[in-house]
Amino acid sequence: MTQIVAHRGNSSVAPENTLPAFAAAAFGGAHFIEIDVQVGGDGSAVVIHDAAVDRTTDGAGIVAEMRATDVKHLDAGSWFDPGFAGTALPLFADVVDLLGRFPEVGLLLELKGAWRPEPTQALLAQLASAGVTERVIAQSFEVEMLRTLATLAPELPRALLVQEVTDEALATCAELDAVACNPTSASVIARPDAVDRVHGAGQQIFTWTSNDSAEWAPLVAAGVDGIITDRPDRLAGWLAAQ
Ligand code: G3P
Ligand code: CA
């Protein structure tokens, strides 16, 4: 069964990387919620895609230079739609709380940038104390980040984000003992044998980011394990109709 992975939550109906987007994803049939986490200047884990808050909030500044108290009051909803005015920019702890409300939903946790060991350990401790580690796959474009996670939390499943499945990507995924090797959807549609290559290495493959059936159909035919999409509710309906 193809896993439905909600990219930044259900980011087509609610502002990306916010609790409403995550709840909409869970209620809409997503198997996993994908989130982006950046580390703040005080070591806090901030749920936001960009390195700066400017695009998706009413504030300005670099996340790595801000504290939790700086970001908590920002409006992360108005830019998307006035109906979401006042939506908070979440911290990672808010997402962990939300997972408690949706015990069937997994978390595809993308760590953005390079994290020092201390904030990484703090994030891992939040997962462990909430008892949700087994529902999480941590992913990153940063090989060093995944090496750090492998050292600090070998039990936490890891995935490498890549542009395409190459010999080098496969070798790195193997070295990391990754559970998944996650390339762009376009690369898999162009070379569907990528799926067999990843499966042959004993890993899963989740592709990003596809929002309509013109891409969902060839990805399902190729046998991907999951599709990362901004439209998880639509993908759920489309899959049900097949
Ligand atoms: O999950 C993969 C995808 O989210 C990576 O790209 O830029 O949307 O974080 P980006
Ligand atoms: Ca992401």
TrEMBL record:
Protein name per its UniProtKB record = Glycerophosphoryl diester phosphodiesterase
- Which InterPro entries does the protein's record reference? GP_PDE_dom, PLC-like_Pdiesterase_TIM-brl
Which molecular function term from Gene Ontology is one that the record holds? phosphoric diester hydrolase activity
Q: List GO BP terms, alphabetically.
A: lipid metabolic process
Q: Show where the GP-PDE domain sits.
A: 2-239
Organism field: Ruania alba
Which PROSITE patterns would you find in this protein's record? GP_PDE
Please list every transmembrane segment annotated in the UniProt record, as residue ranges: none
